[in-house]
Design brief:
single chain; alpha/beta; 20 strands; globular; binds flavin mononucleotide; binds iron/sulfur cluster
């Protein structure tokens, strides 16, 4: 069995599975039960004030029979006094000395306020701090959360203030509600952050009730934008993690968050540069015990791959993630239909006819049976037919030799500028 321990910027944990700062980490009772279930760390529900909240506050997007494909909330930070949380953090850390307990913090962007809260939470023995610059609603209206997180200079300044007094590692949690996540990530690093975590929730409106015309959720008939999370946000989170992981200006460890609910998701985030991960929605949906399957799955995967430690996964796929301009434009794949697995549903034909390149022919084979066949010379290898195909193994995407040497867009432009106009663009292939 592989070693699952991680060390994220000095914060040690028996495994990479942490609970994200959210309702499941609201009390000592919950965090301790989570540790008993197998979670390796927890980022406490954000501490700060005021202790105010709305009722109602959650909504979900169910898609095609799948409950909670996405989750939306307008909740604020902790609903409990700081002293109560600190007492329970102390007790939790004492009971679970080897588990990671991280305090999530949010205060006004004032130096003395940050100094005060950092000293108070570090006094009860936390393993690290996470600065919440991501909450998109409620606190943002008062200059905190995402309102801070959308101003790179303010992220840097506040991180610096925290680092002036902090004795434990400082993680800066980023908002995805921004054009280029790496800009803020770099400012966090410049401010002295030991790590970044991402993503917090994405601005969203879960829906509108077509009968009452109220927003979903609503508070007495009135709604506001909330934060989106859960499986639907995973691709966005993964790409933001990847962008930060490959950016030399960031260069600090990453705690990956956003739509993680299976061990496979964990592996993907780690391959794309995360040292560890955090989970919220999946626990709100299925409870603490989902970690058991995640641990087993990850263990089996590492054994199958012959890896001795989970840390060996971190960043392995980062070199495979680059810019569009670096992709080989002469690489060619085509779709090939496997008659043995095809159930003749015709979905691939419709997709290719209506939305791609009209290159799946309907033929009749020697036995008089209707078959579909791809005209490979016209296939652009878009993948659409294989995406819509409901039968496993019925369509393979096959790499073919295009007969041309690899050539990226960037190389192509280089050649064109070197030739200095003696060839037209069309001649360079
Ligand atoms: C109801 C709810 C409350 C949350 N509260 C906080 C919070 O207090 N502090 C914080 O940093 N993030 C908070 N989050 C964001 C989560 O920590 C996490 O970043 C986000 O939900 C994405 O992860 P997921 O897709 O696993 O849910 C909250 C999320 C939800 C759903
Ligand atoms: S890969 Fe695209 S172009 Fe090729 S057959 Fe499928 S849908 Fe048509
Ligand atoms: S979508 Fe798949 S199963 Fe349906 S006809 Fe095409 S290859 Fe066959």
């Amino acid at each position: 069995m592989a070693d699952l321990r991680i060390d994220l910027a000095g914060i040690k944990s028996p495994n990479p599975f942490w609970l994200a700062s959210a309702p499941p980490t609201n009390t000592g009772y919950q965090v301790q039960r989570a540790f008993e279930a197998g979670w390796g760390g927890a980022v406490w529900k954000t501490l700060g004030d005021p202790i105010i909240n709305t009722s109602s506050r959650f909504a979900a997007v169910h898609f095609n029979g799948q409950r909670v494909a996405g989750f939306n909330n307008i909740e604020l930070i902790t609903d409990r006094p700081l002293e109560v949380n600190l007492k329970e953090i102390y007790e939790t850390k004492k009971r679970f000395p080897d588990h990671a307990v991280i305090a999530s913090l949010m205060v006004e962007p004032k130096r003395e306020k940050w100094h005060e809260i950092v000293k108070r939470v570090e006094a009860v023995g936390v393993d690290g701090l996470e600065l919440n610059f991501g909450c998109p609603h409620g606190m943002a209206e008062r200059g905190m959360g995402a309102a801070s997180g959308q101003q790179p200079d303010l992220v840097q300044a506040q991180t610096t203030w925290v680092k002036e007094v902090a004795t434990t590692p400082v993680i800066v949690k980023l908002t995805p509600n921004i054009t280029d996540i790496t800009v803020v990530a770099r400012h966090a690093a410049k401010g002295g952050a030991d790590a970044i975590s991402l993503i917090n929730t994405i601005n969203s409106l879960a829906g509108v009730d077509i009968h009452s015309w109220n927003t979903i959720p609503h508070v007495g008939g009135q709604g506001a934008h909330g934060g989106y999370c859960g499986p639907a946000v995973k691709p966005i989170a993964l790409s933001m993690v990847a962008e930060c992981a490959r950016d030399r200006g960031v260069g600090i460890p990453i705690s990956g968050i956003g739509g993680i609910s299976t061990w496979q998701d964990v592996v993907e985030f780690m391959l794309m540069g995360a040292t560890g991960i955090q989970v919220c929605t999946a626990v709100m949906h299925h409870g603490f015990r989902i970690v058991e399957e995640m641990i087993d799955g990850l263990n089996n995967y590492l054994d199958d791959k012959g890896l001795a430690s989970v840390t060996e996964l971190t960043g392995k796929s980062v070199p495979k993630y680059s810019n569009w301009g670096d992709l080989d434009l002469n690489y060619k794949v085509v779709a090939r239909i496997n008659e043995d697995n095809c159930i003749n549903c015709n979905k691939c034909h419709i997709a290719c006819e209506d939305a791609s390149h009209q290159c799946i022919d309907m033929l009749t084979n020697a036995d008089g049976k209707a078959v579909l066949q791809v005209r490979e010379e016209d296939c652009v290898g878009c993948n659409l037919c294989s995406i819509v195909c409901p039968a496993d193994g019925a369509i393979d995407m096959i790499a073919l030799d295009s007969g041309a040497a690899p050539m990226t867009w960037n190389q192509r432009q280089q050649v064109i500028s070197t030739l200095n106009g003696s060839y037209s663009e069309a001649e360079v292939v």
